[in-house]
Amino acid sequence: MIRYDPEIQALYRRYCLPARRYLKLGGAVLRMSPEEYEPFVHALSSDARAVTDAELTILFEGSWRERRTAAWLAAVSRRDHFRGRLGALLLESEVCCAGGAYCVALASFGTARDADLLAAYLDRYLHRPDLAYDQPTAMGALAYIDSVLHSDRASHLLQEGGLWRQWFQDAPRIRLACAVIDECADT
Fold first, then answer.
1. What are the DSSP calls for 20-80, one per residue?
2. Are the CB atoms for 118 and 155 separated by under 8 Å?
């Protein structure tokens, strides 16, 4: 259950809101100019060192903005003891826009346990093409860990007839989006 209270709001203002950080955690940080990137990374690193475990725990009870920020702060500060919480939040998929951050944090920890958590998510949600959540990011994170550990946890999902290929074939979102594009292009 998501908590909304003054404590979360104070932490939101402290860790999520500066420069609208929560919007930049993910793909946007990769597209920043050097002039934007350097101060962003410095501020994120500073806050990752300053945030306490208790504050991270509270942020993980907030909405997607707080959860996304908490995942990155945990990853940057190498607090892999939040691994179980990140895995549980990913499996619950309770809020939008945070799952990718959980995947990135798990990939940054990069252990076999992190790979197992990502694989558990994929084993559950690749059976549900109607729920297009964070499957691509989770698959990318799992493949990344495989490359670092020289393991092959993702191989059974990627092989011919594997869940990944089946999910992509059945996932309606991209098929419907392409249909809209085709319809617009033909008018």
1. GHHHHTTHHHHT--HHHHHHHHHHHHHHHHH--HHHHHHHTTS-HHHHHHHHHHHHHTT-G
2. no
d(CA 124, CA 148): 24
Q: Which parts of 140-187 are beta strand (E)?
A: none
Nearest to 108 by CA among 144, 81, 135, 137: 144
* Token pair for 107: 């990939």
The owner of tokens 């059974």 is: 156
Model confidence, pTM:
0.88
Spatial distance between the Cα atoms of 172 and 132, rounded to a whole number of angstroms: 8
CA nearest to 99, candidates 75, 64, 129: 64
Q: The tokens of 125 are what? A: 């949600």
pLDDT tens for each residue of 72-116: 999 999 999 999 999 999 999 999 999 999 999 999 999 999 999
Query: Is residue 163 classed as helix, strand or coil in its secondary structure?
Result: helix
